[in-house]
Amino acid sequence: MQQENGFIDIHCHLLFGLDDGSGSIETSLAMARMALADGTELVLCTPHITPGIYDNTASRIDAALSAFRQDLDAASIGLAVAMGADVHMAPDLLPKLRAGEIPTLAGSRYFLFEPPHHVLPPRMEQLLASLLEAGYVPILTHPERLSWVEQHYDLIRRLSAMGIPMQLTAGSITGRFGPRIRQLSERMLDDGLVDIIASDGHNLTSRPPSLSAAHALVAARLGQAEADAMMRLRPSAIVANADLPARPGPSSDAPQKQGRQAGWAGWFRRGEKG
Known about the structure:
The protein is of the alpha/beta class. The chain is built from ten helices and nine strands. The protein has helices at 25-37, 58-74, 93-99, 124-133, 153-161, 170-174, 179-190, 212-222, 224-239, 264-269; strands at residues 7-12, 40-45, 48-49, 80-83, 86-88, 110-114, 137-141, 166-169, 196-198. The chain has a six-stranded parallel β-sheet with strand order 3-5-6-7-8-9. It has a three-stranded parallel β-sheet with strand order 1-2-4. The relative contact order is 0.16. The model is unreliable at 249-262 (pLDDT under 50). Residues 242-274 are annotated as: Disordered.
């Protein structure tokens, strides 16, 4: 596999001991091997930041990532990794982003935004607008798995129209979370609301760091170009802090930018950010 053709997984709980993801270095290394074998070349390590539950900070995540890079090197695993977080909605989100306490994705203006799963919070639309106005781009994580989304589907349309990228979970598309969530994922795909697909990997079995099966299903449904855009081009743009390629449309057949894309492993294994 040529490196520039690999997947980029922007949402994965690969670092151990920080949240409900990997619980040991052995599991983390096995997940890294699994991701690499599945065709992923770069994983953004995104532990939860959930106030009162997972009180992770940028400095703590960075220290864990640096140690994990050494473990990857010692195990001769050629997976590139970079920093991020799965950030739960909170009232102090913007000041913590500005202070650098909450990491964005690979130092870009993009970050993962996780709303409450079981209730639509008040003023979420206004909060997301304020984050955009401040120069950040919140990526709404796994909207298809939020229990309130079907009753508030028009909100997802509005958020997408105002510039909030949508990230689906690969396992939702393959049916790992059941038929209801798979059908909602397909609806969002058909409605042109999906920007990115990521693994949201947590372990080796029930929530693995795998993208290839979902890529095949999306390619069959929407075409190879859009499947590549969701798992290669747009994630690459995020890491490069560039604008996201439009979705969907014939322009998604444009060739990938090279430059940094061709050297993810060397770049991120050194711990550098763009």
